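My convention is simple: the sequence line spells out the residues, with the fold written below as integer tokens. I include a record here:
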Amino acid sequence: MPADPTSPSLAPGRRAGRRSSATALKILNASKALFLEDGYDGVNLDRIATRAGVARQTVYNLFGSKEAVFRATMEHHWAAFGLEELTARLDRDISRADPADFLRRFAEMVLTFIAETDQVSFTRLVIAESRRLPWVATEFYRLGKAPLAETFTACLREMSEAGAIDCAHPELAARQFLGLIQEFVIWPRVMAIGPDVMKLPPTDLVVEEAIAMFLSRYMPADSPA
């Protein structure tokens, strides 16, 4: 029977305080490396403990099960995006931000995350495991893509309400912009499409063209050219 994601023993918030410790971070870094190397079935608490340089009982005390470690590993992975920085923009009156500058900074955050956090390898892992373990894809989306899209949507909504852009459907627009970037910078790599098969444009060109396309649709009609 599939594990109940709402079970107290599996809930992401379980032992939250202790999971922020240096020992917990060592365990999560070790577990991420192992899961990426050998997949979900190829990892157990003993291997995680050995890689982290801690006792198996320590891993168990902090997380309780391999599934709980994997869920926490996904949460740890997405935390590297720095969503707090994007959220903070809402507190600095994003309505006054230049739309092109904001989109460029947001794209830079996405590109940095992809380049520095094994996002391509982690996405491949999720795709491989989710056919047999559907909760893997659900949690990967819930912990990462969903809050990212929601926060970006909130930014676009505030800019639209201030008249900086004209966007009646900010959630749709947020996903449109993400799609314009990810089509070139992540999916060819996830699918391991070789450079000889797919000629990819430079990343900076991808970003600038995405911004131009987005603003050609969503800039107010009375905006100066």
